[in-house]
Amino acid sequence: MAPEARPASVVVVGAGQAGYETAASLRERGHPGDITLITAEGTLPYERPPLSKAYLKGPEHCSDEQLWLRPATYYARHSIDLVEGTVREIDPVTCTVRLADGSGYAYGHLVLATGARPRRLDVPGAGLPGVHTLRTAEDAAALRASLATARRVVVVGAGFIGLECAAAAREAGCEVTVVEALDRPLGRVVSAPGAGHFTRLHRRAGTELLFGLGVVALHGDGRRGVTAVELSDGRRLPADLVLVGIGVVPRTELAAAAGLAVQGGISVDARLLTSDARISAIGDCAAFRHERYGSRVRLESVQNAVGHARLVAERLTGTSRAYDEVPWFWSDQFSTTLQIAGLDTGHDTEVVIGDDPDAFSVLLFRGRHLQAVESVNRPADHLAARRLLDRGIALSPDEAAAPGFTLKEHLVARRESPAVAAG
Ligand code: FAD
Fold first, then answer.
1. Same domain, 101 and 129
2. Which of 193, 218, 246 corresponds to the end of one domain?
3. Given the CA of residue 38, which atom of ligand 1 is nearest to it?
4. Beta-carbon contacts of residue 113 (< 8 Å; ≥ 6 apart)
5. What is the position in ligand 1's atom list of the atom closest to the CA of 86?
6. Which residue, 6, 71, 118, 308, is most buried by CB atoms nearer than 10 A?
7. Is residue 113 domain-shared with residue 253, that is, in the same domain?
């Protein structure tokens, strides 16, 4: 039997979305052995997306308990040993993990679901009181408390977390400025038409967006906290709260110290196995070979974390397959929902469908191949896009650009036509 097949005991490091889902799926699939779920956070496993959305609006919108993926009783009822502690070391020879308090856990299979940490701003003053990052429930509680009294907020980075926090701060009545080094928001993941929409949305709400500028220093002192943000063009923006949202760094140090391959994340194959067949890595920390794209990617989304976890649980209960799910993602800002299906690995044609400037979809093609669909307030397009991409149903830019075209009708027509080959 291969070392990873049907192990007696599974230890999961990290009880975020991916770690929790691994333990839950293993039990759902009838795994009979021990499951140990180790969390460095002093709380029950919880979901992160509300932290930059409803949670920031106040406890009446989202309480701490509402973040929990399951109540405490769930873990006992399903014999999942939820252990609070930080894993300091993996010994791949004795198949043991060791915690900071000296305790050890032996594994038949080890799942690394260590996630990612926020990238820090490397400028003078970055450690001043009033400067926040947002990853954990603890971060969100601190940010929410500061927002209650803040007047002038500067958000560094116009990525998803930066823009969602900017929206929450604006809704809380703060003056908000977003500073972004690139020439548009969401630069890494959203097309120009999509980015244009979010620029207008935030400006319409009264937020100042500054592009093509860096932050060179944060000013203030230990008593008053941050008071100003100095930009690369010499300007100083007054601020009593700064949110730094400049991306994350995968947490790979445990894996690297154990001698596992690490490159832009913990390196895993299409079955999410590391270079040690007794160790998997999943979720935000894993750089995996995505069968659908034939390349190595690292994704940061709930769907990816859950999909990875389920695949590993399947493998550990006897069914092995390669991960090939169509990626999808969402973001809520003000009353706008953006949903993205697929992965844009470099498009050459954009087709916009929908006449409403506040409700449209952008279809991204490489040649005649549909790569991804961004939907702004068009949930039906998003669902149809996921199905089209999943089934590999062909769609050309010309077809998409035809008057009256809808993704849903295309899906229905092609599903009913046996002559259509998968693209
Ligand atoms: P994590 O959730 O980061 O969990 C990893 C856990 O491992 C952490 O609790 C960490 O403390 C623990 N850990 C690390 N090292 C150790 C150790 N040595 N010992 C013990 N424990 C350890 N995705 C979407 O799809 N849509 C959204 O709208 C969205 N919004 C988001 C908003 C915010 C504010 C954030 C932060 C993320 C958002 N995401 C969103 C991304 C999504 O939440 C992540 O992709 C997902 O949580 C990844 O899950 P994970 O389990 O891989 O990692």
1. no
2. 246
3. 20
4. 12, 13, 14, 15, 16, 18, 19, 22, 281, 282, 283, 285, 305, 309
5. 19
6. 308
7. yes
Query: 259 and 234 in one domain?
Result: no
Residue 95 included in any domain: yes
Under DSSP, is residue 368 helix (H, G, I), strand (E, B) or coil?
coil
Give the nearest ligand 1 atom to 17 CA: 51
Question: Each residue of 135-157: b (16+ CB within 10 Å) or e?
Answer: bbbebbeebbebbeebebbbbbb
Q: Cα–Cα distance between 261 and 228 in angstroms, integer?
A: 42
| Pocket flag, ligand 1, residue 305 (CB < 6 Å) | yes
Backbone angles phi, psi at 301, to 5 degrees: -160, 155
8 and 106 both lie in a single domain: yes
Helix, strand, coil percentages (3-state) for the chain, rounded to 5, are: 30, 30, 40
What is the domain range of residue 178? 120-246
- Do residue 291 and residue 150 come from a single domain? no
Longest dimension (CA), the chain: 72
Per-residue pLDDT of the chain (423 residues), as tens digits, is 355 568 889 999 999 999 999 999 999 999 999 999 999 999 999 999 999 999 999 999 999 999 999 999 999 999 999 999 999 999 999 999 999 999 999 999 999 999 999 999 999 999 999 999 999 999 999 999 999 999 999 999 999 999 999 999 999 999 999 999 999 999 878 999 999 999 999 999 999 999 999 999 999 999 999 999 999 999 999 999 999 999 999 999 999 999 999 999 999 999 999 999 999 999 999 999 998 888 999 999 999 999 999 999 999 999 999 999 999 999 999 999 999 999 998 999 999 999 899 999 999 999 999 999 999 999 999 999 999 999 999 999 999 999 999 999 999 998 755 444 333
Shared domain for 179 and 65, answered yes or no, is no
Give the count of domains, the chain: 3
- Residue of minimum CA distance from atom 48 in ligand 1: 284
Which of 316, 344, 369 lies at the terminal end of a domain, its last residue?
316
Is residue 75 situated within a structural domain?
Answer: yes
266 ligand 1 Cβ < 6 A: no
Same domain? 165 vs 242? yes
| Pair (128, 240) in one structural domain | yes
The answer to whether residues 388 and 410 touch, using CB atoms and an 8 Å cutoff, is yes
In a domain, 326, yes or no: no
Is the Cβ–Cβ distance between 163 and 185 less than 8 Å?
yes
